[in-house]
Amino acid sequence: MKNNTYEIQLRPTVVADLDTLFEFQLDPEANHLAAFTSKDSTNKEAYLSKFTKLLDDPTVNNQTIMADTIIAGSIAKFIMEGDAEITYWIDKPFWGKGVATTALKDFLTLETTRPIFGRVAFDNLGSQKVLENCGFVKIGTDKGFANARQTEIEEFIYRLDR
To answer: Per-residue b/e over 45-74, b at no fewer than 16 CB within 10 Å?
Structure first.
């Protein structure tokens, strides 16, 4: 789907994408906003091991977000405590350009599991806006330990039923 700036396409994530996707999550500001990251987001070996296994997990739908011909991020559905949840990560140069919203709208046509949930740090206003623009409704809050911040923070829980 075309947004205002880029032709956005999703394609199944492949092992060759993981090096690029790993680099995205090294950005300190992005890590802070994501908040709920791995314990050591700089450990490339652990990252590659974890995500290589997830590519083979039939309960996970991993897609790479392409903006024109450039990898702009990733988006996935996974199961957590019996619920389908989404996660996405957009490379910083693509923030604020509609890439996440376009990718999530496209993803929700591929991934039809409903209800599907999204969780976002209380102060990640951009991600909250993406979820709301895609029809997710805020249904509650939770607290959890945010590895990227080394403290417990509030997160908002969103749900999409349609």
So the answer is: eebeeebeeeeeeeebbbbbbbbeeebbbb
